[in-house]
Amino acid sequence: xxxxxxxxxxxxxxxxxCVGLDVDLEKIPSFLLEEEDPIFSFNKAIIDATQQxxxxxKPNTAFYEAYGIKGWKSLEKTINYLNQTYPEIFTIADAKRxxxxxxxxxxxxxxxxxLGFDSVTVAPYMGKDSVEPFLAFENKHTILxxxxxxxxxYDFQTKKIAxxxxxxxxxxxxxxxxxxxxxxxxxxxxxxxxxAEVRKIVPDSFLLVPGVGAQGxxxxxxxxxxxxxxxxxxxxxxxxxxxxxxxxxxxxxxxGEAKIIQVEMKAILDGIS
Amino acid sequence: xxxxxxxxxxxxxxxxxCVGLDVDLEKIPSFLLEEEDPIFSFNKAIIDATQQxxxxxKPNTAFYEAYGIKGWKSLEKTINYLNQTYPEIFTIADAKRxxxxxxxxxxxxxxxxxLGFDSVTVAPYMGKDSVEPFLAFENKHTILxxxxxxxxxYDFQTKKIAxxxxxxxxxxxxxxxxxxxxxxxxxxxxxxxxxAEVRKIVPDSFLLVPGVGAQGxxxxxxxxxxxxxxxxxxxxxxxxxxxxxxxxxxxxxxxGEAKIIQVEMKAILDGIS
Lengths: 273, 273
What we know:
The structure is a homodimer of 273-residue chains.
Chain A: H1 3-13, E1 17-21, H2 38-50, E2 56-59, H3 61-65, H4 68-85, E3 90-97, H5 101-114, E4 119-122, H6 128-135, E5 141-147, H7 153-156, E6 160-161, E7 164-165, H8 166-174, E8 183-187, H9 192-201, E9 207-209, H10 219-226, E10 233-237, H11 239-242, H12 250-272
Parallel strand pairs in A: 1-2, 1-10, 2-3, 3-4, 4-5, 5-8, 8-9, 9-10
Antiparallel strand pairs in A: 6-7
Helix pairs in contact in A: 2-4, 2-12, 5-6, 9-10
InterPro entries (chains A, B): Aldolase_TIM (IPR013785), OMPdecase_type-2 (IPR011995), OMPdeCOase_dom (IPR001754), RibuloseP-bd_barrel (IPR011060)
EC number (chains A, B): 4.1.1.23
Protein name (chains A, B): Orotidine 5'-phosphate decarboxylase
């Protein structure tokens, strides 16, 4: 998917909501456990119910790997379902990969070509040649961990390299990498005060913002400091949406939660347009 | 496996060789492609042929994920074979994972409990709470990316935080994490001159050293600066061993290459004991 398509979907749907599909068998409605593939059944229902409010879905691969081969089958079915049924939806493999060149190429092939994701999250620690293999794929996007939303973000990311924080250095340096137009960045919503700083360095890049909702970030703050004229934001919510209910109505409940966020987004988008 | 077991195996085998199982179907002997599971057949033969010279095996998960579900099955069969046939061998899932707390727990469970690896490689960028879930597993080991062997290592890892390089900061900070006794570190062999610096900070930790052989590192240099009285080194070679031949004799050829390194190791170990 091109960046233009994504922007146009956001404008059309008046939403930049990304739904995180972090599926835990202990958290999904118990009656689904009788299904042949409970994870896929859950995802399908959640997707069908929330897709009108969301422009992106983000399965975190850890939750699928935790179930071994069965989990990978569920992941494969989920991405296939998204690509076939809602080709206009942007898909993110939240895999946080990154390795030496030829190995990163393997990951890139697995997520972009074989599974058919539009984007993948990548850790920058190993530098340029660990990220560029991902960037080489046309109309595929690499979402670089820059400033994450967890406590540990303060361990290294906000430390200063010479005069600037490591995450700013990551932002600046990565802009010069080959095919940098395919880069997006993860910026934790719980650090809205940093967003203005981020925008000084990457004014037009898409930012994937986790941590609104359950992790306590404010959508208004995120938009105030992170939004551009083309929006260039994807705001993710996982648990707050997909685990809204454990009953028969779980999908409607998820839709309800998604709608609440989307309505808030619409109000903001209407305000700037 | 406990650290003591690993050290005792190293002393017994007079080897601290780790064989990287980065299996590429285009690189394995073509006659194996007729087998039901060419990757597993290849790994089994390589393991059987080289195990007397090696104390550890390290499949890089990217190479398995690249083949989707089939690849995961091959990985599962490989680790099961290792655990059942050579329980004294140390196993490393070279997965370079790392995510927020509850997600890292998933990865830890997948690699330590479900697959049964002794250790996993983890990227430190997200800090303490992204690594500690791995550390919580008893007699399991977390190998933290500190100073990697690729070009991109100079992008961030060798940059200075205040007065010290990022990788040193990673070493120092990570020592204070809960269950830090389960930490090992990746230190690229192509940077032997840094090893002395590393040892000042982590004198007793195991270092996983990639890059000897194909990537040009020198075993002697690595030992000179990185070895301790308990050795505390694992030196990895992947391509140099497993792709020694594409013919019927590929396993013997791999054994031959492994032996060359092991003989060099033995000479060094005999010299210090």
